User: Which sequence fits this backbone?
């Protein structure tokens, strides 16, 4: 699925596939280009394998930061309940820094404090640092809209609400119809688009497709 934010929240496409392997994403992004997308300014991703590379290949100028919320959640898996609040607070001091330099200094302080106790977290953030720092190119007021995948997570919650009591479906088409109806109902609460670019990709209406497994 694809969602555009802020100011306009629209579901741009919905695909059904047996996997989300590295071969899946290029074809989806190619489909988006064929529908009129000339460029994408920024895409926040949650670390799915192959997705950032596919985005950069299709839209070379796009900034592709990792979702900070997912990074923090992943980090907290490696700490005890006693330390989790303090670790979360120290990580917050990193991603809420005003500049990249300030963030790097905060990361160094975090490493000094936690490297012996939580080396995995320190290594993860250092390894992914190049995919974190794009958010510091924007004003802090804008980061709340671009540093997390909450927009798509909210769509997923709507779908789960509609499907939680339905464990079996006659076929794939019936499952897609239910998901489509869930999204259609939820979209009534979304803000109306501020602008419409002539010739640009249109929001989901009956644009629901089935794609075969990519075998990965």
Assistant:
């Amino acid at each position: 699925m694809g969602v555009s934010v802020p100011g306009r929240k629209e579901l741009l496409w919905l695909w059904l596939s047996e996997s989300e392997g590295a071969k899946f994403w290029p074809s989806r992004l190619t489909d988006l280009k064929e529908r009129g997308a000339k460029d994408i300014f920024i895409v926040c991703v949650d670390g799915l394998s192959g997705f950032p590379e596919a985005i950069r290949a299709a839209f070379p100028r796009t900034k592709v930061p990792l979702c900070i919320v997912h990074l923090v959640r992943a980090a907290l898996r490696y700490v005890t309940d006693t330390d989790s609040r303090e670790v979360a607070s120290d990580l917050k001091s990193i991603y809420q820094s005003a500049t990249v330099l300030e963030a790097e200094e905060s990361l160094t302080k975090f490493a000094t404090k936690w490297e012996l106790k939580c080396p995995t977290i320190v290594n993860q953030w250092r390894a992914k640092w190049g995919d974190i720092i794009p958010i510091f190119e924007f004003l802090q007021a804008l980061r709340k809209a671009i540093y997390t995948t909450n927009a798509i997570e909210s769509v997923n919650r709507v779908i789960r609400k509609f499907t939680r009591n339905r464990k079996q479906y006659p076929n794939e088409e019936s499952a897609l119809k239910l998901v489509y109806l869930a999204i259609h109902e939820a979209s009534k609460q979304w803000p109306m688009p501020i602008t419409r670019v002539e010739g640009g990709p249109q929001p989901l209406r009956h644009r629901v497709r089935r794609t075969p497994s990519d075998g990965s």
